[in-house]
Amino acid sequence: MCGGRGTRLATDAEKPLFRVGGVPMVDRVVGALRDSAVDRIVAAPSPNAPNTRSHLDVPCIETPGEGYVADLDAALADDRLSRPVLTVAADLPLLNGEVVDRVLDSHEGGSLTVLVPASLKRGLGVSDDTTFEDGGRVVAPTGVNVVGDGPDDAWLTRDRRVAVNVNTIADARVAEQWL
């Protein structure tokens, strides 16, 4: 998923092309996927990220640019994808193949949402705009999911590699500390 505007990032760069440690975030995510057991990578840019689309060297499914959920729905409706589908946000510069493989190994059918404790995000000093209660704990989504047919499940991890989503310049500074 690489079509966001990145308005909270307050930069002229398209969010997926924003550089963390000198490398565009989307390149770091594509590299993590290439280093994993994932067998096919398809990007989902939008009109909000035209330079991202031309930058990528993987097949793309164009999305409408109407927000993450609408763009995800559009991508999942494309005939080139079959479920289950691993979805990954382009703003996870610490992601690597090992973490992706752990997510895939944790998937037991249906859909899987990867969560981290909200306290971990706060402890790392990164934004935690979206939190909710799950099993008596306050958690945050990571931007990594498996979308399948069937029941939904959640996987809670304390791995900072999925806890650090770059939404602000301060988040980018935190990410660079962990590279």
From TrEMBL:
Superkingdom: Archaea
Keyword set includes Glycosyltransferase: no
This protein's UniProt keywords: Transferase
GO molecular function: nucleotidyltransferase activity
Signal peptide region: none
Annotated Pfam families: NTP_transf_3
InterPro entries in UniProt: MobA-like_NTP_Trfase, Nucleotide-diphossugar_trans
Gene3D superfamilies reported for this sequence: Spore Coat Polysaccharide Biosynthesis Protein SpsA, Chain A (3.90.550.10)
Residues of the MobA-like NTP transferase domain: 2-119
PANTHER family the record matches: ADENOSYLCOBINAMIDE-PHOSPHATE GUANYLYLTRANSFERASE, MOLYBDENUM COFACTOR GUANYLYLTRANSFERASE
Protein name in the entry: Cobalamin biosynthesis protein CobY
